[in-house]
């Protein structure tokens, strides 16, 4: 059992913000129709190669990412996904997937001591560039922003 800690033993909080909430859909077009057309969320990007599309949350940078290939779960923004996974392991968690390269950076998947899956995302390569329809055309690196 993990004992409650009165104060932080690290200098900086690891999880910066919720980057995205992944929502599993059976059909990307139907998912976009529901969340964009039915609920009013603006399409940010769509990448058919990976079976995903992101819609904006109006009052934050958090995205609703519709996916045809992954399960529903939150994605946490971190500075370095691999280092964050190692820190979680050192604190008593478990690394499930140490490093998955994605077009905009890197993902690590971990589990906390209570069985919760945490998807750790860094945007070390940048963010998606899109055309007027929201289709991904490339990645805009930090240098170009």
Structure notes:
- The protein has 145 residues and is mainly β.
- The protein folds into 2 domains: 14-73, 2,3-Dihydroxybiphenyl 1,2-Dioxygenase, domain 1 (Roll), CATH 3.10.180.10; 78-127, 2,3-Dihydroxybiphenyl 1,2-Dioxygenase, domain 1 (Roll).
- It is built from 2 helices and 10 strands; from the N terminus they run E-H-E-E-E-E-H-E-E-E-E-E.
- It has helices spanning 28-38, 81-90; strands spanning 17-24, 43-47, 52-56, 63-67, 73-77, 94-102, 105-111, 117-122, 127-130, 136-140.
- Strands 2-3-4-1-5-8-7-6 form an 8-stranded mixed beta sheet. A two-stranded antiparallel sheet has the order 9-10.
- It is elongated, with a radius of gyration of 16 Å.
- The termini are far apart.
- The mean pLDDT is 90.
Brief synopsis:
The chain is mainly beta and 145 residues long.
């Amino acid at each position: 059992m993990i004992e409650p800690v009165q104060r932080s033993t690290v200098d900086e909080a690891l999880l910066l913000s919720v980057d995205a909430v992944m929502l599993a859909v059976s059909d990307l077009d139907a998912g976009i129709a529901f969340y964009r057309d039915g609920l009013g969320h603006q399409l940010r990007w769509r990448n058919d190669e990976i079976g995903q599309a992101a819609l904006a949350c109006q009052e934050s940078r958090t995205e609703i990412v519709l996916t045809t290939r992954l399960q529903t779960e939150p994605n946490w923004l971190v500075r370095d996904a691999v280092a964050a996974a190692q820190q979680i392991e050192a604190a008593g968690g478990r690394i499930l997937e140490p490093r998955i390269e994605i077009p905009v950076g890197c993902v690590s998947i971990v589990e906390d001591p209570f069985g919760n899956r945490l998807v750790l995302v860094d945007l070390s390569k940048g963010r998606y560039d899109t055309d007027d329809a929201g289709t991904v055309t490339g990645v805009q690196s930090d240098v170009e922003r």
